[in-house]
Design brief:
This protein has 173 residues and is mainly alpha-helical. 58% of the residues lie in helices and 3% in strands. The chain is built from nine helices and two strands, in the order E-E-H-H-H-H-H-H-H-H-H. Bound molecules: zinc ion. The site of zinc ion has 8 residues, from loops.
Length: 173
């Protein structure tokens, strides 16, 4: 019998289980949880924050705000759809945002929890988040500046650079 790790409680669970017997986590979501590296590397996490906070799940807005092409924006939305952050969009029906800002942070923090014990991975993520925050600040994208700093601080609560930057942008919109 093959076993996989439950991302919620970290117990090993049969691949045949639909929910984790320990905590009830829907195991169908495990693939997307294991996909978290791709999630953060693909800009999808940044798009997720933007879409959830602005309540605007339109490809057009994302293309403009992030200065990316249609295909890349579409790929980000497919990831958000898989993670149940937005509904599927088909033809005339536009997508809907399914999570509140707080729920999104909880989801993202759960992804980050799964790397917290790996110091080198944590350092790599924190560096990336701070680098992204600076880039988004230059672009005037304060939503993504804040979310990247919050993620950096979640992994490294005492990070001086992130604390200083977060303090400075706290009142910007
Ligand atoms: Zn579990």
């Amino acid at each position: 019998m093959a076993l996989i790790k439950c991302p919620e409680c970290m117990n090993m669970v049969s691949t045949h289980a639909t929910v984790c017997p320990n905590c009830g986590f829907p195991m169908s979501l495990v693939d997307s949880y294991n996909d978290y590296l791709g999630f953060f590397d693909s800009m999808a996490a940044d798009v997720a924050f933007y879409v959830v906070i602005k309540r605007d799940p339109s490809i057009n807005s994302i293309q403009k705000r992030f200065d990316i092409g249609f295909n890349k924006a579409q790929q980000c939305f497919e990831k958000l759809e898989k993670l149940k952050i937005v509904t599927a969009g088909s033809g005339q029906t536009s997508r809907k945002v399914l999570l509140s800002e707080e729920e999104l942070y909880n989801t993202i923090f759960k992804h980050l929890d799964s790397i917290k014990n790996d110091t080198s991975l944590v350092n790599k993520y924190v560096d990336n988040f701070i680098k992204n925050a600076k880039r988004y600040l230059e672009d005037g994208n304060i939503i993504c500046t804040k979310s990247n700093l919050k993620m950096a601080l979640y992994l490294d609560t005492k990070n001086q650079e992130a604390l200083y930057a977060f303090d400075k942008i706290q009142n910007l919109h």
